[in-house]
Amino acid sequence: MASPRIIHIALDEATILWRSADIEQERRIAIFDLIEENTFKPLRAWEAGHQGPYRLGLAVDDGRLTLEVADEDGHLLEQLVLGLGRFRRPIRDYFAICDSYYQAIRRATAAEIETIDMARRGVHNEAAQMLLERLEGKVETDFATARRLFTLICVLHIRG
Q: Is the peptide bond before 53 cis (omega within 30 degrees of 0)?
């Protein structure tokens, strides 16, 4: 029975040099939410008869995102490589807004926190839409899955 979804996600821990407790919490939530509910259909694997579920590995190397798509048993089905040049600014903006958000949580008013959170969601949504565009023709996915994947891409870009 076809199941076009991710059942396991792994981040290249060698890529992640440092992360704060706040970022670690974001990572845990993104992975949990992603596993709970997602749509992920890698088109080449699907057409070759591998119709899920999938294990996904994410890594960033030399400005490129590598998505390793494996079957349920961990056998590599395909590897997708996406240039991340267009994501540099959204990633930088997202980090800056997240930093403001984490600081605001500790000492700002509810209205200030809400304003920063709205800006954070806006950047996140724009980046998710860009990711959907980059995956077009390679992976069919939904907006919520793209949002969570963008969060994990950001985690992979943390340099300390």
A: yes
Which helix or strand (DSSP H or E) is residue 149 part of? helix 143-156
**How far is Cα 145 from Cα 149, in angstroms, rounded to an integer?**
6
The one-letter amino acid at 103:
Q
Q: Is-contact 154 93, C-beta < 8 A?
A: no
Helix 88-107 vs helix 21-36: angle between axes, to the nearest 10 degrees? Answer: 110
E strands within the chain? 6-11, 40-42, 54-61, 64-70, 76-83, 139-141
Tokens for 132? Answer: 């959907």
52 with 5: CB under 8 angstroms?
A: yes
| pTM confidence score | 0.88
Q: How far apart are CA 25 and CA 51, in angstroms?
A: 31
Chain Cα centroid distance, residue 99: 18
Query: In DSSP terms, which residues pair with 41 in a beta bridge?
Result: 140
Structure confidence by residue, pLDDT tens digits, 131-147: 999 999 999 999 999 99
pLDDT digits (tens, 9 = 90+) for 57-80: 999 888 899 999 999 999 999 999
By C-alpha distance, which of 100, 11, 46, 139 is closest to 131? Answer: 139
